[in-house]
Amino acid sequence: HVxxxxxxxxxxxxxxxxxxxxxxxxxxxxxxxxxxxxxAPGKGPEWMSSIRSGGSTYTADSVKGRFTIxxxxxxxxxxxxxxxxxxxxxxxxxxxxxxxxSGYCYRSFGYWGQGTQVTVS
Length: 121
Description:
By secondary structure, the chain is mostly beta strands. It is built from no helices and 11 strands. It has strands at 3-7, 11-12, 18-25, 33-39, 46-51, 57-59, 67-72, 77-82, 91-98, 109-112, 116-120. Strands 2, 4, 5, 6, 9, 10 and 11 form a 7-stranded mixed beta sheet that branches. A 4-stranded antiparallel beta sheet has the order 1-3-8-7, with no helix packed on it. Strand 7 and strand 8 form a beta hairpin. The chain starts with a strand and ends with a strand. 33% of the residues are buried. The mean pLDDT is 97.
């Protein structure tokens, strides 16, 4: 069965960096597009970034230049590098599969992981 397991969340100081990871299993990872979505306390989900199977990336304007998505197909791993962190980046970070067939890679999510907590304080 499909599994997405996030890890790497932590408590970091403002201005710090962190890399969160997502280990995938149960599906052909290399052919799927994937996304990172975050949800802060009391707020709705916010799309962060997506990466297509071919490696093209898309990142929300709010974090562009600070967050970088990447993938390692041979290891079935998805990553999000978070730099110059701010207190408002505090959230649960989720990885998810995404359907980019419409041309948009930020709204049709499929499988989700359980999330990893990033706290910036």
